[in-house]
Automatic annotation (TrEMBL), chain A:
Lineage of origin: Bacteria, Bacillati, Actinomycetota, Actinomycetes, Pseudonocardiales
UniProt organism field: Amycolatopsis marina
Top-rank taxon, per record: Bacteria
Identification of the protein by name: Dihydrodiol dehydrogenase
Length: 90, 471, 172
């Protein structure tokens, strides 16, 4: 674990293993208190509130396996056209 | 050269050498030098010895938490040995099912899932493939993930904290394989309530020597201490009688295992039970059988080998020439890298609940006398390199038999020994070494059984285990 | 609270010369003389490293080392080499300590300097035309005494996790 000092704000906790790195920090604005979980490598982040976090506490390892079905995130919707479509057809 | 069964045949010359060796070890108590450093022997050995035997992978304490993993070897195959999210110990071939990439490249870590660095296929730590990048676009979601789990070690089992794997799905159970050796292993592995732990990680280093020389040395060679380790005797790190290692029992069991159990030289008072702390002595007297306690009481050194390449050293030794002796426990793996090269992995273990002073003293005694820099062990590595080099040459290989005749006509098995196995009343003997080599040669001349080696059996077995785990 | 030594050009030169003299003694097998350069409260450690991910806090293993000596055990090693039975180094290896990238900084105590250096240790034995090489970084604490320096502390961080020499019989 690494604690990253975060100027003027709460520190960021970073944990890593061989496969990835993840950062967690505490965010509060007005009434709102959330944990910000972000993936610096993939560029995703999510703000989890207490209820969402609570729901994690009864999940099984299999549920996380399902979430990892797309191991690098959802990706962008592909509406790719074949390269041949770009080639002149005259 | 492959036969119809998928295994490799032995060349006639090799088979003759081994069959002659089997006759000689029985009749003349000699062993052909050709088995030590020969590329063809090594090739055959990979399949016939390491492809069939239970090989030590890790100690449970190294993966004590869910998600913990270490990468370990059976012959050159590497396995992720891990504790899955349900707490079960597993072994997966460290090779992605897509293109074969190493899934783990660190030696150890903790994770619930393994994500292949090549294209990102992701497996949970039970080994199931759970994620494929762009699975919808690239595979049209038609890839049946259940068919592409990480290959499991065909057989995996644990004995008193030691995790072993076996590449032969038809192999006998680990319990049966260890057989009578368990009586002696228990003395080391099972003497305390909380059990043992590996401290840190194993030291790893490479020696230009054949692995069998390490195994042969630990299985029974008390004789070499007089000469090889004389410097340490002179300095007082070992008992002052250079023949100290003679005063012991020399025991072997089926399947090539064996050990020497050495007591103090006559008239030399050394503490009982390896001088272990009182709390452990109290526990062991309660935990072990009366026979095991009797065997262990006078012990100052235990050296042994679990066939093929796991050795045990439990020694009472001083950390330097001015300190009193402390006992320590080391496990080591003689991991073959070729006919003339091995990697040694040397583990230091301690009773989890031993007092801190003992942990510290024991660590110091270990690291200064054994392991890569150990003042004792240095001399062994030197010898094994030298032997490997000369025995790799054509004339030596063709003409030399090695003399395994110690004790011939000198002593008979000890009828009064309270433990199992075949015991001789003196540790200057080579019965264990013959037993080791004979078993090794028997494996070498035994052709692979039909069906083994094609991988299918292990797949089915794995699918079953997985189905059970997920049910 | 002691004040740290101010690092002058002279300190740097002295520390550098000390390291070179040490290397010369070790390569000449003059271990007795080397012991004279060592403080009685010596700590000499070669940590055990493992391959870990970049993000891991450290790749140095806790609780176990490759070598962990004090003055007594170092003397034991030297005494051992003086017996006629230290086969590991008899015949001796031919070794060469290449010491570079020397960095001298103030030590924790007033009479100490902290010296980092890179080490390349070449080792060859017997009549085989092969060699072993060890490479690593040394973190030393040299203590100023009358007439020179004594080695009080050394940590040798080797660059290999699986070490490619058959024993660490040589002092690094
Ligand atoms: S090799 Fe592993 S995902 Fe391609
Ligand atoms: Fe030995």
């Amino acid at each position: 674990m690494t604690i990253i000092r975060n100027e003027g704000q709460d520190p960021i906790i970073q944990i890593a293993n061989e496969f990835t790195v993840i950062q967690v920090s505490y965010i509060s604005t007005g009434q709102r208190e959330r944990l910000l979980v972000s993936s610096p490598r993939l560029g995703f982040q999510t703000l989890l509130d207490p209820l969402q976090l609570e729901s994690l506490t009864w999940q099984t390892p299999e549920m996380y396996s399902k979430l990892l079905d797309t191991p690098y995130g959802p990706g962008v919707k592909l509406d790719a056209r074949p390269l041949s479509a770009l080639l002149g057809k005259d | 050269m492959s036969d119809a069964k998928g295994g490799h045949m032995l060349r006639d010359e090799l088979r003759q050498t081994l069959e002659q060796g089997l006759r000689d070890v029985e009749a003349d108590w000699t062993v052909p030098a050709a088995i030590i450093n020969d590329p063809e022997m090594h090739d055959a050995e990979r399949e016939r010895v390491f492809g069939r035997s239970w090989v030590f992978l890790a100690h449970e304490s190294e993966i004590s938490e869910r998600g913990d993993y270490v990468v370990r070897y059976i012959s050159e195959d590497q396995f992720i040995v891990c504790r899955d999210e349900d707490g079960e110990v597993r072994g997966h071939l460290n090779s992605c099912r897509h293109r074969g990439m190493q899934v783990c490249r660190a030696e150890m870590g903790n994770t619930s899932h393994f994500r292949c660095p090549y294209h990102g296929w992701t497996y949970n730590n039970k080994g199931s493939l759970v994620g494929v990048p762009a699975g919808r676009e690239a595979y049209g979601n038609k890839l049946d993930k259940s068919l592409w789990q990480l290959k499991p070690v065909p057989k995996l089992d644990t004995y008193k904290g030691l995790i072993f794997g076996c590449l032969d799905p038809e192999a006998q159970s680990l319990e049966d394989y260890l057989g009578d050796m368990k009586f002696y292993l228990d003395i080391v592995l099972d003497r305390s309530d909380a059990g043992l732990e590996v401290v840190g990680a194993p030291q790893r280093w490479v020696v230009d020597a054949n692995w069998k020389l390490g195994a042969d040395n630990f299985v029974g060679d008390a004789y070499h201490t007089m000469m090889t380790h004389r410097s340490m005797v002179e300095l007082g790190l070992a008992p002052p009688d250079p023949k100290f290692a003679l005063y012991g029992e020399h025991v072997h069991t089926e399947n090539g295992h064996g050990l020497g159990i050495i007591g103090p030289p006559p008239g030399m008072p050394l503490p009982e039970f390896l001088g272990m702390p009182e709390s452990i002595v109290e526990q062991l007297q309660r935990r072990l059988s009366p026979e095991q306690v009797e065997v262990f009481r006078p012990v100052t050194f235990i050296h042994g080998t679990v066939f093929p390449n796991l050795s045990i050293g439990n020694f009472l030794m001083s950390k330097d020439h001015v300190s009193p002796p402390t006992s320590f426990l080391t496990l080591r793996l003689w991991h073959p890298l070729g006919p003339d090269k091995m990697e040694i992995m040397s583990f230091f273990l301690i009773e989890k609940e031993a007092p801190d002073w003992y942990k510290e003293e024991s660590y110091q005694a270990y690291v200064r006398t054994f392991g890569i820099s150990g003042a004792f062990e240095q001399d062994d590595a030197e010898n094994w390199r030298s032997i490997t080099r000369v025995l790799g040459a054509q004339y030596a290989k063709k003409t030399m038999e090695l003399n395994y005749q110690m004790g011939r006509g000198v002593y008979e098995p000890d009828p009064d020994w309270p433990g199992p196995g075949k015991a001789f009343p003196m540790d200057y003997a080579e019965a264990n070494q013959r037993n080791f080599m004979e078993y090794w040669m028997q494996l070498m001349v035994t052709d692979p059984a039909p069906h083994s080696g094609n991988g299918k059996v292990s797949d089915d077995a794995a699918a079953e285990t997985l189905a059970r785990a997920e049910a | 609270m002691t004040t740290a030594t101010e690092i002058t050009d002279t300190t740097v030169r002295e520390a550098t010369e000390w390291l070179f003299t040490e290397a010369e003694l070790l390569d000449a097998g003059k271990y007795r003389e080397w012991l004279d350069l060592v403080a009685e409260d010596l700590s000499y450690v070669v940590p055990l490293r493992v391959t870990r991910e970049r993000e891991a806090e450290t790749d140095i293993v806790e609780g176990l080392t490759l070598m962990d000596d004090d003055w007594d055990s170092m003397e034991m090693r030297v005494l051992r080499l003086e017996t006629e039975y230290a086969w590991a180094e008899d015949p001796p290896s031919r070794s060469r300590h290449f010491v570079t990238n020397i960095r001298v900084a103030a030590g924790e105590a007033e009479d100490e300097v902290a010296v980092k250096s890179n080490l390349l240790l070449y080792r060859t034995r017997g009549d085989v035309a092969t060699f072993d090489i060890l490479s690593g970084e040394r973190h030393d604490v040299l203590r100023r005494v009358a007439g020179g320096y004594r080695l009080a502390k050394r940590v040798v961080v080797l660059d290999q996790t699986t070490v490619m020499t058959h024993n660490l019989a040589l002092i690094m």
